Amino acid sequence: MSTILSLARKWRPQLFSDLVGQEFVVRALTGTLSSGKLPQALLFSGDRGVGKTTVARILAKAINCEKGPTVNPCQECDSCLEITRGTSPDVLEIDGASHTGVEDIRSLREGIRYLPFRSRSRVYIIDEVHMLSQAAFNALLKTLEEPPPHVVFIFATTEDHKIPDTILSRCQHFRFRSLGVPEITAKLENIVRQELLSFPRAILNLIARASGGSLRDALSLLDQIRFLGDTPRSVEETALFLGMAGGLPEKKLLDSLLEGNLKNALENGDRILAMGIDPRATLRSLASKVRDLLMSSLLECPLTDPRFAWDESEVPETPLPGAFFLEQMLSLLLEGEMGIRKSPQPSITFLLCLCRIVHIQNILPLPEILDRLSKTGLSSSPPEPTRAALRPSVPNPVATQQTDNPSAGNDPRIPSDWHQILERCRDAGPAVLELLEHCPVKKLSSGHFLLKAPNAFMEKRIQEILPAFQEVVKKNLGIPFELVVSTDSSDKSPEPDSSDALARNHPLVREAASLFGGEVIVTRKSGFSETSPGTEEKKE
């Protein structure tokens, strides 16, 4: 049985011009090569399968090409051919995950003392360098500080935050980005065309979404799918093979969510679960599509635009809702995907997420609520309640005093309620209104009010602001106004005093005071006690 070369290896870029999606990295590296000032330690970081070790190999060829250093290796000299085959004695690839110890770094330090066999420089490519131990990093540090002139280090990692700062500061850091779905789809179309394979764009788009931004993973998936058979492959079959909802099931689910049909959404969601598809992958795929729908709506461009790379068969049949609903839908999909990760019942969490998405269609955006309120004549913002309105209401005593001119009390310009006066005199200032709201008031006659201050301090403060407040009332109401201020003690009813007198003069009390030669002590509710006058009796 013969073996074949995988698509990922067969179509591995060999020149800077073959790279996809790493324009800034290519520009920086070609610029340093052209200037002849290449650093001796470089760090490539990024997700898996985005081209870190591939670029490291291309850079090694550019350095050691017999016609170089050059940005375009000839691909014909012995050095270029050996690096392409991975047999060059001067380009060493080391797996950092399996060479983590300090002894491995010491062996490396012993080797860098020797000059290259037949190349211009010795290039050390250490993949997954973040897996080195702290002792190994310390052993490497001295070499990076003073490297031999014939040595170039290229480090590759997916987790640059795990690399010590002392190493980072001695390297030039190049960050590789993940590829977008349109970029991967376009590259796959080019490869499929040259391989004489038959794949519809919808399947290639599905593969690009499943790759997670990694071109290498996309080529590996394409390699697997092409061996399913010579029969025409459908999107549904491909999606099921990839463990995704994709194709018609996912399209039906998306349509039912967009139209707010809960019954259809649950049926389609349950059908996807019955197919054995990971609910997290389904929500992740839906989130990617809703993101494209939102961008298409805001940018006012069709989904078939190259930046989205949607096939005509993937476009939803349901009219798109507004951006508000799409934003909420995207947020719920991401929350649901995180919830499934922690949930003991992923299928229930998945269906619950679908229910929430349907129900948010009943929530109106704030501008629409305000618009409806303005059309119905209701105030868009209710008046702020005063502190007096928030306190439990205590009925004010009804004034029984009659005036000589009864008709004056019916002046329509004079509000009957004290709080109405305060509302119409808000220009007196918040501090004044705050002070007056806490005091009970009763109306004596037309334009005459009695305000009870709770203590002498409050009475003094009110007396200070009273003239200015009365002027504001006269200006706003257009009537003469007089406010009389008194403390609570000056307006007490005589009933408590008379009851105390009855208690002191009770025969039993007087007899007890005479028997023990004492005096009557009256205890108030506030907790203070006082000696009642005239209760001391003469001894017989």
Automatic annotation (TrEMBL):
Top EC group: transferase
The keyword Iron appears for this protein: no
Stretches with biased composition (Polar residues): 398-408
Region feature Disordered, mapped onto this chain: 377-416
Catalysed reactions, as listed in the record: DNA(n) + a 2'-deoxyribonucleoside 5'-triphosphate = DNA(n+1) + diphosphate
Family in the record: Belongs to the DnaX/STICHEL family.
Function: DNA polymerase III is a complex, multichain enzyme responsible for most of the replicative synthesis in bacteria. This DNA polymerase also exhibits 3' to 5' exonuclease activity.
Name this polypeptide is given: DNA polymerase III subunit gamma/tau
Source organism per UniProt: Leptospirillum ferriphilum
Gene (UniProt): dnaX
